[in-house]
């Protein structure tokens, strides 16, 4: 999952959907979260995600290497 600390509602919903399945974020968890605003390459990564998937906002969620979408799409897919 690509996220930002400034993303409140939709990133929280996506993380909560994974938590309901027993998947947690962070070290030792099953969900990898990259904070784009905390990574030196964040702006470049976000621009590439926009170019590849047409989504400029976060979260950008991938499951098994496949793009799921943002927070709403993630909640509906899980």
Q: Which structural traits does this protein have?
A:
Glutaredoxin; 40% helix; alpha+beta; globular; two-stranded antiparallel ribbon; two-stranded parallel sheet; 78 residues
How would you describe what is shown here?
The protein has 78 residues and is an alpha+beta fold. Helices cover 40% and strands 14% of the residues. The chain has three helices and four strands. It has helices at 9-20, 42-53, 71-77; strands at 2-3, 34-35, 61-63, 66-69. It has a two-stranded parallel sheet. Strands 3-4 form a two-stranded antiparallel sheet. The longest helix is centred in the N-terminal third of the chain and has 12 residues, at 9-20.
Q: What count of helical segments does DSSP give? A: 3
Question: Main sheet, how many strands, which sense, barrel?
Answer: 2 strands, parallel
CATH topology: Glutaredoxin
Widest sheet: strand ordering: 1-2
The total domain count is: 1
Strand proportion: 5-15%
Oligomer: single chain
Number of strands: 4
CATH class: Alpha Beta
Overall shape: globular
Mean pLDDT: 90
Structural class, judged by helices and strands? alpha+beta
- List the secondary-structure elements in sequence, H or E: EHEHEEH
What is the share of helical residues?
25-40%
């Amino acid at each position: 999952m690509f996220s930002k600390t400034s993303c409140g509602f939709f990133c929280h919903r996506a993380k909560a959907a994974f938590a309901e399945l027993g998947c947690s974020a962070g070290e030792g968890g099953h969900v990898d979260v990259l904070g784009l605003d905390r990574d030196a390459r964040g702006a470049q990564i976000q621009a590439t995600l926009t170019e590849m998937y047409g989504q400029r906002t976060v979260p950008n969620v991938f499951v098994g290497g496949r793009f799921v979408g943002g927070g709403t799409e993630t909640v509906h897919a899980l």
